[in-house]
Amino acid sequence: MYFTSDNASGAAPEIMAALARANDGYARSYGADAIMDRLHDQIRATFQAPEAAVYLVATGTVANSLALSLYAQPWSAVFAHSDAHIAQDECGAPEFYTNGAKLIGVAGDHGRMTPDTLGQALARTGTGGVHGVQRGVVSITNVTEAGTTYTPAEIAALTALAKSYNLPSHLDGARFANACVATGATAAEMTWQAGIDIVSFGGTKNGCLGVEAVVIFDPAKAWEFELRRKRGGHLFSKHRYLSAQMEAYLTDDLWLRLATHANAMGARLAKGIAALPDMHLQHPAPANMLFPEWPAGTHARLDSAGAAYYQMPAPQGREAARLVTSWSTTEADVDAFLNALRA
Amino acid sequence: MYFTSDNASGAAPEIMAALARANDGYARSYGADAIMDRLHDQIRATFQAPEAAVYLVATGTVANSLALSLYAQPWSAVFAHSDAHIAQDECGAPEFYTNGAKLIGVAGDHGRMTPDTLGQALARTGTGGVHGVQRGVVSITNVTEAGTTYTPAEIAALTALAKSYNLPSHLDGARFANACVATGATAAEMTWQAGIDIVSFGGTKNGCLGVEAVVIFDPAKAWEFELRRKRGGHLFSKHRYLSAQMEAYLTDDLWLRLATHANAMGARLAKGIAALPDMHLQHPAPANMLFPEWPAGTHARLDSAGAAYYQMPAPQGREAARLVTSWSTTEADVDAFLNALRA
Amino acid sequence: MYFTSDNASGAAPEIMAALARANDGYARSYGADAIMDRLHDQIRATFQAPEAAVYLVATGTVANSLALSLYAQPWSAVFAHSDAHIAQDECGAPEFYTNGAKLIGVAGDHGRMTPDTLGQALARTGTGGVHGVQRGVVSITNVTEAGTTYTPAEIAALTALAKSYNLPSHLDGARFANACVATGATAAEMTWQAGIDIVSFGGTKNGCLGVEAVVIFDPAKAWEFELRRKRGGHLFSKHRYLSAQMEAYLTDDLWLRLATHANAMGARLAKGIAALPDMHLQHPAPANMLFPEWPAGTHARLDSAGAAYYQMPAPQGREAARLVTSWSTTEADVDAFLNALRA
Amino acid sequence: MYFTSDNASGAAPEIMAALARANDGYARSYGADAIMDRLHDQIRATFQAPEAAVYLVATGTVANSLALSLYAQPWSAVFAHSDAHIAQDECGAPEFYTNGAKLIGVAGDHGRMTPDTLGQALARTGTGGVHGVQRGVVSITNVTEAGTTYTPAEIAALTALAKSYNLPSHLDGARFANACVATGATAAEMTWQAGIDIVSFGGTKNGCLGVEAVVIFDPAKAWEFELRRKRGGHLFSKHRYLSAQMEAYLTDDLWLRLATHANAMGARLAKGIAALPDMHLQHPAPANMLFPEWPAGTHARLDSAGAAYYQMPAPQGREAARLVTSWSTTEADVDAFLNALRA
Fold it and tell me: Residues A52, A58: contact at Cβ < 8 Å?
């Protein structure tokens, strides 16, 4: 009953097997390994983007930060939901990598920016000439921090606003696979076809050990990315181990299969909670993250049953939680949790 | 016959096995895993430093850069050999992490600073009051970029100079194990007992997939390190995979056993080259890195024999090379290379 | 009828005369001039702070940014009113000088933080351990961007909150003189006696050409300030011209006399507007900055009368303005403006 | 007998008069003043560059640092003479404004890079792919730190090398007027006609209070410069005082007349010293800066005669000095100094 985060899960067997295979013999270092040679095309095919530049890093924090640093100047405003991971959970890494860009929090229910809220933020920023920061880039997270998703059409509406100011758009896809499964969108539909310029394509939370691909749809940005990655200390000498993870992750749609399972476990959990009296979800939960609210005293009961998850702020007399399922969550885990809830 | 770099080798079987074991079940993320809990004490014991703060990162570039950033202000001078990795091979990562500190190249034969050359550099820097950069930190690399080593006494002589200016000293130990084996020094003798304040303790080049420990002998610096690591995007969510590598690396002195083998292969290669006519090593080669010089035409012969290594600048009519052995180099590799040389 | 800003005024005759006197002969450069020698004690006396470190710069932007950079780490949160100059009008200069600190906007009517709003912002920041930015420094502006003021007691209430988190407090005193005159507070009462650690003491807007003093009550910070000022390109070689301005500004309470006049002109303007039908001030106006709201059509009438000021956003069917008086505003200016308003 | 630096001199009467005139009445702030409106064209005419973008700042440090930041990325190498002011005397300001670019010291006698020494530095930098810093910009100082000058042809030879690597070239013209007078070159010949892309055109050392113009021959860089200047805290609110200095400086060739006098005083001093036994200049002295070497004991004699200047390192048994003349140096000053030397 481990629902703290999808990053508490291990790696899928297919990933571990690929790592073992990749360990054999010598390989060129710093991204010149043979697996990476193949992987460029594999990722481009996944995204139907034959020109895209593709790079691997090991953490989501740096995938996002490097992606933003390609498009945000030090004097830029980065527009993202107020609760976005880049705004709240990365200790200022985007500010570090951009040399001081300013994050502008955009409002919106359930962790989602709307054309209205984003439009207002865009309109009121950058109007002071040289005295204020300049509009720079829009960053959209899918799955959001509230566990909700954007459809490709919803993303397109936000990137259209960005484009009306000549701004590029970034997609934080730490849970990209879960978003694709939840919405039925392909990788292409979710990104460049919806106006996204650069995407952090997450593997770590969905069954890898630690790998994220940054996919840049404008290949003219490639060399700058390489320099920034090196300078950030994120170019792996034994790069083959990043390559191997990502190759296995994409092979035979493993990434989608793992996310399909994680989302199914999320749905099973959501359905179970919804059926219980005096409990509800604070946000829609189409993917693998749920924010239930329940009566006071429930935490103690779950704790004594051995359930692990994060407690969240709740209204007076109530309790709230964040539950995250993953590729390794079992039906038995979910049912045991629901039983403990009912007890 | 693969001698390009020790980072072209794979990971040792003990490391891979540890990774597989660590994959089982759920684990707390971001460094709170159970292996890391044990590892703190294991590293402290290795360094005989019960108070040291210990952190893991995945690349040597960031181990060095974060270490320097704890001690160098943006207006500081960092003193290192002119050929040091931090000066030549990290695309300005130290400048990035320190927000602009200035690297001062220190001269010295065979990749080694001497008390004389370091003393001169220290004396002529920071004399301009507010107009010039201020003396900040001394960084020593062991094994050096020329494949040579410093003994603990030689390190102590350099750190004593640093201390005479109230400066801390950093040790870039990307090949720390090879240096310890080559000199017979313990980890403690090589570091804090010789006046080192912070060390990048390398695992990647010596049989790991990608892990380096930063050992900070002044634990008051711990929290700042954690913030800087996170901000740099180097805090792994699935941290257990870093922990597992390092635990296996230290267990039963694996790190020393792997380096002993690498150095033995280096010695076998050195001995073989020295016995050949018209060939010599440009630098002493006590560890696992050799810089032979040989007659023109040798590269072509080796190439057709299938040998892989880096070519280096050489005097007119001559050729030079860099050869690196590792934990996975075999005697057969060495002998085949020597045979090709002789042919 | 020039009310756009107090920085549209020229310099007071006493300041110009001092500049001319300072021009005579040779002077040591970079802050070692004889006037600066005297000025240290003059500023310390003005602030009743015999230990304070005192430095001059030429713009308010850098006075604030350098002051913050002494106390905010790159991973720090800087708490300031959402409308503060450092947050809205300096193109990210504080982020530049702090290497990426994050400004947290604090709410509050009439441009003023309250213990409630600041307390809430402090409480909800820095609770995420290493994942979020850390509480760093509180910055208070007096006179505020809305033209209102804080009394020393109100400042003390805010700095007490800061101190409860062990945070230092900065005062942005671009209009420090106007605030002192408006509240009757002395420089000491307004700053260190109210818990302020560092103050940007403005001269430019109040009759100088371009000079601001940064007064640091903890002299241990002095040397770092000097390095940061030099590194920012703000150490003047012909420093005597900054010194001369500031010396004249403090001599015979010129700074208070100029602000007394500016505030009196503000009060005359406020009184005149209040007496007019269908007009009011959006914020209290105790100093030299007024934000009147009036019927649509008024701007056009004032414009044709030759009045200069900034137009501000207003409710539907209404118009709003910002009017700033200065040391050089005359009663005739004010009365002409009021006549144009009435017309 | 004040020869410490040309920044120890005051401002020329024409400059002071212009400042007084500019003080009259109200003026738009932040560079929108009427004088600056005229000045754009005046500077463009001076440089015969009708498209150039032109900005004013108050210090040479920031003129250079901002100029470099327009062309050097954080991962760039900036090539300059090892003794250049940007390398030795600005406390890392170029590193700060470029967010960490690396200065590469280029050798050369008498403070001057040669095509040979610059060519070697260019050739050996940036050859390591992503692992090393990238060639960024060449910075040339004229008058050099050794008091020597480059002719336009010599500058063209250096910028041609830069262009062969597609690099832009910067001219640090803190003593631009002295260089033009010494070589007979016009402003255009010395800059864009010789391949310079951006120039720091100094006023401070040559009779202004504190003003430097940055002239950017590619106007596409203009907006970025404005943002960087503001963000650095270098946009003056009462900008008219910068404008007024520069307008007077250019009017009726005042800048050339002042430098002609300074250089003449330098030549008088040089001639006098050369005529004395056992004394010589260490570098040619075509402008206003001299580096004499003389017998031990001379400093003491000059000191007791009241001469002020900087002492420099000298060979055993000898003494050396730096002497700088300026617009305000008189023939009497020079002759008194020579008399003291002879005594």
Answer: no
CA dihedral A45, B23, A265, A179 (to 10 degrees): -30
Secondary structure letter of residue B30 according to DSSP:
T
C-chain residues near A100 (CB < 8 A): 92, 95-96, 99-100
Which domains are present in chain B? 13-252 (3.40.640.10), 255-342 (3.90.1150.10)
A337 in B contact zone (CB under 8 Å): no
For residues B272 and B341, give the distance between their C-alpha atoms in angstroms, rounded to a whole number. 9
* Interface contact A131-D230, CB threshold 8 A: yes
The alpha carbon of residue A82 is apart from the nearest alpha carbon of chain B, in Å, by 19
Judged by a CB distance cut-off of 8 A, whether residue B310 touches chain C is no
Nearest to D203 by CA among D178, D183, D181: D178
β-partners of residue A214 are A55, A200
- Omega prior to C214 cis, within 30 of 0: no
Gap between the Cα atoms of A317 and A314, Å rounded: 8
pLDDT for B151 equals 98
The ipTM, to two decimals, is 0.97
Mutate to test the interface with A, among D30, D131, D227 (most CBs of A within 10 A): D227
- Number of H helices and E strands in chain B, helices first, is 14, 12
The reported pLDDT for the residue numbered A96 is 98
Residue type, B136: G
Q: Mean per-residue pLDDT for C283-309?
A: 97
CB C55 within 8 A of CB C226: yes
The span from the CA of B16 to the CA of A19, in Å, is: 9
**In chain B, which residues have their Cβ closer than 8 Å to the Cβ of C166?**
none
Tokens of A117: 């809220």
Q: What does the buried/exposed string (b/e) look like for C148-180 if buried means 16 or more CB atoms within 10 Å of the residue's CB?
A: bbbbbebbbbbbebbeeeebbbbbbbbbbbbbb
- A134 CB neighbours in chain D (<8 A) are 227
Closest CA to B246 of B36, B25, B37, B62: B36
The band of C1, judged by pLDDT with boundaries at 50, 70 and 90, is confident
Per-residue pLDDT of chain D (343 residues; tens, 9 = 90+): 899 999 999 999 999 999 999 999 999 999 999 999 999 999 999 999 999 999 999 999 999 999 999 999 999 999 999 999 999 999 999 999 999 999 999 999 999 999 999 999 999 999 989 999 999 999 999 999 999 999 999 999 999 999 999 999 999 999 999 999 999 999 999 999 999 999 999 999 999 999 999 999 999 999 999 999 999 999 999 999 999 999 999 999 999 999 999 999 999 999 999 999 999 999 999 999 999 999 999 999 999 999 999 999 999 999 999 999 999 999 999 999 999 999 8
Secondary-structure percent of chain D, ordered helix, strand, coil, rounded to 5: 45, 15, 35
Strand C318-324 vs strand C292-295: parallel, antiparallel, or unpaired? Answer: antiparallel
Which residues numbered 133-152 in B keep a CB inside 8 Å of some CB on D?
133
Question: What residues are paired with B214 via a beta bridge?
Answer: B55, B200
**Sign of CA pseudo-dihedral B211, B217, B221, B223:** positive
Residues 6+ apart with CB under 8 A from A119: A161
Which stretch of DSSP H or E encloses residue C281?
strand C280-281
* Interface check B323 vs A, CB under 8 A: no
Contact across the interface for D74 and A235, Cβ inside 8 Å: no
* Residue C280 in contact with partner chain D when CB distance is under 8 A: no
How, if at all, do strands C169-173 and C134-141 pair? parallel
Please, which residues 74-93 of chain B have a Cβ atom closer than 8 Å to chain D?
Answer: 74-75, 88-92
B189 close contact with D: CB closer than 8 A: no
d(CA D199, CA D190): 10
Structure tokens at D69: 């930041």
Cα–Cα distance for residue pair B284/D268, rounded to 1 Å? 58
